[in-house]
Amino acid sequence: AGGGALMTPMLILLFHVRPAAAISSDLVAAVVMRPVGSLVHMRKGTVNYRLVGWMCAGSVPMAFLGSYLLHVLGAGAGQQSQAQQQNVEIALGAALLAGTAAMMLRSWLDRRSGQARTQSIAAVRVKPAATIAIGAVGGLVVGMTSVGSGSLMIVLLLFTYPALAAGRLVGTDLTQAVPLTLAAA
Question: How far are the Cα atoms of 12, 95, 111 from residue 149, in angstroms, in the given order?
Answer without folding.
Answer: 19, 11, 24
